[in-house]
Design a protein that fits this description.
By secondary structure, this protein is of the alpha/beta class. It contains 15 helices and 13 strands. The strands form two sheets. It has an eight-stranded mixed beta sheet with strand order 9-8-10-1-11-12-2-13, sandwiched between helices.
Amino acid sequence: MKYVILQGDGMPDHLLPELGGKTPLEVANTPNLDKIAKCATTFGMVKTIPDPLPPGSDVGNLTVLGYDPMVYYTGRSPLEAASMGVELGATDVTLRCNLVTLASENGSTIMEDYSAGHISTEEAKELILDLKAELEEENLTLHPGVSYRHLLVWSGGNKDINTTPPHDISGKDIATHLPSGEGSQKLIELIEKSRRILKDHPVNKKRIEEGKNPATSIWLWGQGVAPSMPSFKELYGLTGSVISAVDLVKGIGKYAGLRVIDVPGATGYLDTNYEGKVDYALNSLEEVDLTMIHIESTDETGHMGDAKLKIQAIEDFDGRVVGRVLDGIKRFGDYRILVMSDHPTPIDIRTHINEPVPFAIYSSSDESVKNDSFVYTEKSASGSDVYVNEGYKLVSMLIGNET
């Protein structure tokens, strides 16, 4: 038996006036997702974010991979550190270091773009290396990552400071969202210094000439310490692999002892190599039992507040990922597929929320239509009689180990 988890990050949404009171999932053409919903052995809604925890992709993806975030969640950035090969000491606190675009508006400083125009990894690396030379101290180390996503390691830092994800404050004044709490002044100083260093940087001058948003500052958030997690095989008795363009998901995979596979052209955006991700995932099933394919574009377009682009991302997910998996996995004989998201990222608020999400489990052993009225949407899934309150248990349902 082979198992596949297809994770459309942030895909669920709200009813939007510009879509005639429908969600992007309801408007998008998704024949493959709808087929899975109609033929699913289990179709319904699942709560992926426990109420006390923040509705982030860190918490959500721990849930998707079968780890109870109430037990294993220690912060976002340590997971990204693992993916980047950064080993953490006992006193190390890590923080996500975004390259962002800040803008002046009516005397205030606004978070104009949490991703600095989805800056390229090559451009970002040049900026981060120049920032390293100016900002690093004995207990502070910067590490370049992918696109706008980078890492700061703060030896002896305070993990209990308060920080805000930049995608939560798009278009808002940053003044009341800067780091706060003991030790936060050091982080604020780093942000302010970065603005001076990046102001006239050649990379930014070139981006402005090209009509792209410049990276005008760093933004520090998502602090945490290294978690202690059992391997996926210890929990579920299966070997597995993870396919993602995002360091966060790769880091969870590393802590879980899964094979983390890098795919050429995987960007985490609309231009990602969808087909390559599927092909690498299916090929990995020659040697492992389970694979998870994580698609980020459905989340990024939600953060952008662009319904048209989110529909495109959903249709790409359906046709270029779900459909390709349904065709390609047949060579393995028996298989089961779980389709879900880690959380909604609604267009109207442009950030994550902890509302439940649709899920479907599809089995090759019973591909008959269970309910022809089902389609893979929030409304249809809510209309089923299935609701899973502890989302991490879906992995056990997928592999038939429900307790």
